[in-house]
Write a structure and sequence with these properties.
By secondary structure, the protein is of the alpha/beta class. It has helices at about 5-20, 20-40, 80-100, 125-135, 150-160, 180-185, 190-195, 210-225, 235-255, 270-280, 295-300, 320-325, 350-360, 370-390, 400-415; strands at about 65-70, 105-115, 140-145, 165, 200-205, 230-235, 255-260, 285, 310-315, 335-340, 420-425, 425-430, 440-445, 455-460. The chain is built from 15 helices and 14 strands. Belongs to the leucine-binding protein family.
C-alpha cells in the first residue's frame, strides 16, 4: 500500500526549492500540488472498504454481503424432503454470485434445520430458527418452512419483524385465507394471530390444499374409477387440511367416504388398518407426511389381510425418496401422490436446472422440492435486486445494522408482492394474501428408484378449471 512521510517530504521539498532557479520553483510547486490532489482524489468517490493487509500487498474494494436464510427440515426423518429444498436454495445463491447477478453485492446462505428431538420437523425449533435469522441484520429474506404446522409458529414472528418468508411447500389454506369456511372461517380463522401487523409478509409458491385435495379426488374418481375411500390424517395442520379438502371434493364428485381417523404418529397402525380392511375401500387416502405415518401405514398395509393390494394415496408430504424406497420392494397395491405445482420436467427451464443441480449435488439428491426451493430463492433474489436498483434501498452494512435491516427488508417484501417470475415450477405472481397464481397440481406413482427421487410423473391438473 502506498504511504508517505509528510515531515520528510516537507524537508525535501524545502531543500529542493532552495536549490532551484526562481523561474522553476513555481512550476515545481504547482506540479507537487497536482500530485497531492490526484492522490487525494484516489480515495474519494463511492464509499468502500479497503481489504489491504498493511503489508504492502495492496487491497480490493469489498462488496456488500446480503444473506438469504433457509429454514427447512434437513436431517433425520424429514431429510428426504427438506435437504433437497435447501440444495435448491444453495444452487440459486451460487448462480447469483457466479453470474454477478447484482454488481457490487455478494450473497450468502444461512441455513437452519427445524428437526427437533423427535426426529421430525418441530414448530418450536422452527420459531427459534427464524428468530435467530431475524437477529442477523444482513438476512434479507427466508426460504421455508416445509411444513404448515411449522409455518403456524413462524409466520407471526416474521410478520412482526417484518421479513419476507416464502415457502416452496406449505399448502394449508388457513395460513393465508378464511376459506374454505369449514376449516378456516369464523372462529377457526387464524389470520389475526398470523398477521399481527395486519400486513402480508408470508408468501408461497405451492398452491393450497383446496386445490391439491381436489386434484387427488379428481384423479382417483375420474382416472382410476375408484368410488369408495377411507381417510386418515396425522393430526397436523397440513394433514388435517389436505384430508378435509380431499373429502369435500371427493363427495362432490359422488365418491363415498367409508370412514375417517385422525391419528398422531405411532409405531403401529394395526388396529385402524384391521378396521379399514373390514370396510373394503377402493383405496386409502392419507393426509400427512412420510415421517408422520405415511411410510409406516403403507408398510403395515402389506401385512393386514385384505389390504395387501389396496391402493394408497397421499399428497406432497408423501412424495419423497424415503417413502418410495421403503415401499416399492414390498410390492402390493399402487401408490399415488401429488405436488402442488407444475412438474419440473414439464417446464422449459427444467433441463438447465436439472443439469446444474445434478452437477452440484448428484442425480440422487433430487427431491420433491428441489425446484421449489430453487424458485423461492430466485424470487427473493429478484426482489432484492429490484429493491436495490429500482427502489434505491440500502442494504445493511453489517449483521448489527438493525435500523438498516428494517427499511431494506420492507423494500424486499414490497418487491416480492409485485414479482412476476417464470421459473422451473412455472409462472408465479402473488395475490393480496401472498398465494401463488399457479394452481397446477402434478400427479405421480412410484417408478424407477434409480431415477431422480423414485417417482414417475403421470399428469398435471389445472385446478383453476375445476368447479
Amino acid at each position: 500500500m502506498f504511504q508517505f512521510d509528510s515531515e520528510a517530504l516537507d524537508e525535501r521539498q524545502a531543500d529542493y526549492i532552495m536549490r532551484r532557479p526562481p523561474s522553476r520553483i513555481l512550476a515545481s510547486m504547482i506540479g507537487f500540488s497536482l500530485i497531492i490532489t490526484i492522490l487525494a482524489a484516489c480515495g474519494a468517490g463511492t464509499p468502500s472498504t479497503n481489504t489491504g493487509n498493511g503489508n504492502g500487498n495492496g487491497g480490493t474494494q469489498q462488496t456488500i454481503t446480503i444473506k438469504i436464510g433457509s429454514e427447512l427440515p434437513t436431517t433425520s426423518g424429514d431429510a428426504s424432503t427438506g435437504k433437497p429444498a435447501q440444495d435448491g436454495v444453495e444452487l440459486a445463491v451460487k448462480e447469483a454470485n457466479d453470474s454477478n447477478f447484482l454488481p457490487g453485492y455478494k450473497f450468502a446462505l444461512v441455513a437452519k434445520d427445524d428437526v427437533g428431538a423427535n426426529g421430525t420437523h418441530d414448530p418450536t425449533v422452527g420459531q427459534k430458527n427464524v428468530t435467530d435469522l431475524i437477529g442477523d441484520a444482513q438476512v434479507a429474506g427466508i426460504v421455508g418452512p416445509i411444513n404448515s404446522s411449522v409455518a403456524l409458529a413462524e409466520i407471526p414472528t416474521t410478520n412482526k419483524a417484518p421479513i419476507a418468508l416464502i415457502s416452496p411447500s406449505n399448502t394449508n389454506d388457513c395460513l393465508t385465507k378464511e376459506t374454505p369456511a369449514f376449516e378456516c372461517g369464523g372462529a377457526n380463522s387464524k389470520l389475526a394471530a398470523l398477521r399481527p401487523t395486519g400486513k402480508v409478509t408470508y408468501f408461497r409458491t405451492a398452491t393450497i390444499d383446496q386445490y391439491q385435495g381436489a386434484a387427488l379426488a379428481v384423479y382417483a374418481y375420474k382416472n382410476k374409477s375408484y368410488r369408495t375411500a377411507y381417510v386418515i390424517d396425522d393430526t397436523e395442520a397440513y394433514g388435517v387440511g389436505l384430508a378435509k379438502n380431499f373429502t369435500t371434493y371427493w363427495q362432490k364428485l359422488g365418491g363415498k367416504i367409508l370412514g375417517s381417523a385422525s391419528i398422531k404418529q405411532t409405531n403401529s397402525y394395526e388396529n385402524i388398518l384391521t378396521e379399514i380392511a373390514s370396510k373394503k375401500p377402493d383405496f386409502i387416502m392419507f393426509g400427512g407426511n412420510d415421517s408422520t405415518g405415511g411410510i409406516t401405514i403403507r408398510q403395515q398395509m402389506k401385512s393386514v389381510a385384505g389390504l395387501a393390494n389396496t391402493p394408497f394415496m397421499g399428497g406432497d408430504g408423501t412424495k419423497t425418496s424415503a417413502l418410495a424406497k421403503a415401499v416399492k420392494p414390498l410390492g402390493g397395491g399402487p401408490v399415488f401422490t401429488s405436488i402442488p405445482g407444475i412438474d419440473p420436467s414439464q417446464s422449459p427451464a427444467s433441463k438447465t436446472f436439472f443439469d446444474a443441480y445434478t452437477k452440484q449435488f448428484g442425480a440422487g439428491a433430487i427431491g420433491a422440492y428441489s425446484a421449489g426451493g430453487y424458485d423461492c430463492a430466485k424470487i427473493l433474489l429478484q426482489a432484492i435486486k429490484s429493491a436495490v436498483q429500482d427502489k434505491k434501498a440500502t442494504a445493511p452494512k453489517d449483521s448489527n445494522d438493525d435500523s438498516g435491516a428494517s427499511s431494506f427488508r420492507q423494500a424486499v417484501i414490497d418487491a416480492v408482492q409485485n414479482v412476476q417470475y417464470d421459473g422451473v415450477t412455472g409462472h408465479h405472481s402473488f395475490d393480496k394474501n401472498g398465494d401463488t397464481s399457479n394452481h397446477f397440481v402434478s400427479l405421480y406413482t412410484i417408478g424407477d428408484l434409480n431415477t431422480g427421487d423414485g417417482w414417475k410423473y403421470l399428469e398435471q391438473i389445472d385446478t383453476s378449471t375445476l368447479q
